Amino acid sequence: xxxxxxxxxxxxxxxxxxxxxxxxxxxxxxxxxxxxxxxxxxxxxxxxxxxxxxxxxxxxxxxxxxxxxxxxxxxxxxxxxxxxxxxxxxxxxxxxxxxxxxxxxxxxxxxxxxxxxxxxxxxxxxxxxxxxxxxxxxxxxxxxxxxxxxxxxxxxxxxxxxxxxxxxxxxxxxxxxxxxxxxxxxxxxxxxxxxxxxxxxxxxxxxxxxxxxxxxxxxxxxxxxxxxxxxxxxxxxxxxxxxxxxxxxxxxxxxxxxxxxxxxxxxxxxxxxxxxxxxxxxxxxxxxxxxx
Length: 292
What we know:
By secondary structure, the protein is mostly beta strands.
């Protein structure tokens, strides 16, 4: 009887020891949304809280990373990795927390539509080498039919063709506008950019200029239109705000020289507007009476 009591006490001690060990680091992950357009950045915020009672440095141990983001498909298979990732060493003071935001679309192939899960594993490098596991979050990647598309050649690369796409994607009850640049030969998305929230009772406009730059004009608020530009490699190259002019809604116009400009609008100058508001405040601060 004593033998079984000793074994039971040993098991209980082991379980309590494991619970204590797993309480030394608290790992939590957070995502701002659960619906993504396949190909866009998918940001995961990892927060680590140090309950060890001493300052802690988290660093790779040889080829073993201190942080892993584990992404799995709906069938339980781990998503295909894009290669090794080095997050660099970090220090977490005793009783303090640190956060790191990571784009898991830069770590895993997440261009296929479907449901995925993500969790974080943190290894402290000490006795708890098995690591501390975070909560698990589900997210979905979707493909959406473009509202507008145009194929263009790539300057300096004969035979190379990219396709611009403009996509409206409803995400968390918001209508977001995206641009994509697709390799026409492989169908692979080279870049997916979130332009921001759009009010779709005014249809977004798109055109390509002589430099193979995509121009997108869309209504972002009841007052402002956004004129965004993206180059043929998918790089964001500019953004202006416009207000309605005297002749109705702003519109994109392509001119004889191949340039694309916004017509029928007033370009919004944020600095000038702020200076004007400041001047109005100064006038309002004048005393109600003046004396000679």
